[in-house]
Specification:
By secondary structure, the protein is mostly helical. The protein has helices at 14-19, 22-35, 45-61, 66-75, 80-99, 104-117, 120-124. Helix 2 (22-35) crosses helix 3, helix 4 packs across helix 5 (80-99) and helix 5 (80-99) runs antiparallel to helix 6 (104-117).
């Protein structure tokens, strides 16, 4: 891998990450998963990469409570990659609510509450 490669086990430099074009970020995430033979369901590679990018963007911008949640999950034993997936799962629920036309302020409040309740133990049990 080059030094410009994405590795979800290490936080990208926030300024460098945000300076990249969005499509470049998505491509780097996809390249990581392809190179490491990650088990991403066929046909969902683009969505999987986009969710990684959204979480990494929130981390790079310091969008609370995402950085606090990621730090808590890693302290509880998840590796950084799994912690990104856990946050992305909660985020995808929020996006689904918004796509159904739910109130964005209410959806954001629920998103924050879900992230506050998210633990490594609950993630491992599939309960988020």
């Amino acid at each position: 891998m080059t030094t410009d490669a994405y590795n979800p086990m290490k936080a990208p430099n926030p300024e460098a990450w945000l300076a990249l074009d969005e499509q470049e970020r998505i491509q780097r995430v996809k390249q990581f998963h392809m190179a490491h033979l990650e088990d991403v369901p066929a046909g969902s590679e683009d969505m999987h990469a986009m969710m990684h990018v959204v979480v990494e963007n929130q981390l790079a911008m310091g969008e609370e409570p995402v950085p606090v949640t990621l730090a808590r999950l890693t302290r509880q034993g998840l590796d950084r990659h799994d912690a990104v997936h856990a946050v992305a799962a909660v985020l995808s629920e929020q996006m689904h609510e918004l796509s159904r036309g739910e109130d964005s302020a209410l959806s954001l409040k629920r998103f924050r509450r879900r992230l506050e309740k998210l633990t490594a133990k609950r993630w491992r049990k599939g309960q988020w």
